[in-house]
Design brief:
This protein is mainly β. The chain contains one helix and ten strands. It has a single domain, classed as Lipopolysaccharide (LPS) transport protein A like domain (lipopolysaccharide transport protein A fold), CATH 2.60.450.10.
Length: 191
């Protein structure tokens, strides 16, 4: 029963966060810019280590941390691992003037898989909504979030936490003057 309730909660959270969190699609085609106090580049291994007030910018996406290690494969795909206390992520949503923000101890951005993973006290905010867990994965291709509570989900501070604010009803709906369902004076026997 406990396991079923956790799966239902996870499905609810995924359903609520999956549809409205579209990332700015043009960001994937933009160049990646990095700033740091220091960088060590290993051209043979294709590993670059940026330290000190690091920020990675790609279009509207911004990742900040204390250290970012970027590896690149032969095809040019990059994998960036950012650490910080906490490291942060921010990206504009597609078609609206709103941002998704996230914080974690470690953020991993994979340009080939088109995923961003948040590890360790992960928190994701969108407007007034707030989602927390030990590991949050965001697939930028499918635009779906997945949240895990960690190895010991029975511990109260390791459980997934979500707060969803009610949406403001900006659309004025006319009040019907007639009830859509009318009572019937004729009863039909059930056979």
């Amino acid at each position: 029963m406990y396991n079923l309730n956790n799966k239902l909660l996870l499905a609810l959270i995924l359903g609520l966060f999956a549809l409205p969190c579209f990332a700015e699609k043009a960001d994937r085609e933009k160049p990646m810019h990095l700033e740091a106090d220091q960088v060590v580049m290993d051209d043979v291994q294709q590993i670059s280590t940026f330290t000190g007030g690091v920020q990675l910018i790609q279009g509207t996406m911004l990742i900040r941390g204390d250290k970012i290690v970027i590896t690149q494969d032969k095809a040019g795909n990059k994998h960036a691992t950012t650490t910080g206390h906490p490291a942060s992520f921010r990206q504009k949503r597609e078609g609206v003037d709103e941002y998704v923000e996230s914080y974690a101890q470690r953020i991993e951005y994979d340009t080939y898989a088109e995923t961003i993973d948040f590890y360790g006290q992960a928190q994701l905010k969108r407007a007034q909504d707030d989602l927390r867990g030990e590991h949050i994965t965001y697939n930028t291709k499918t635009e779906i979030f997945q949240v895990n509570s960690g190895a010991n989900a029975a511990s109260p501070n390791k459980r997934i936490r979500a707060v969803f604010q009610p949406k403001k009803d900006t659309e004025k709906r006319p009040t019907p003057s007639v009830l859509p369902i009318q009572p019937s004076s004729v009863l039909t026997p059930v056979e």
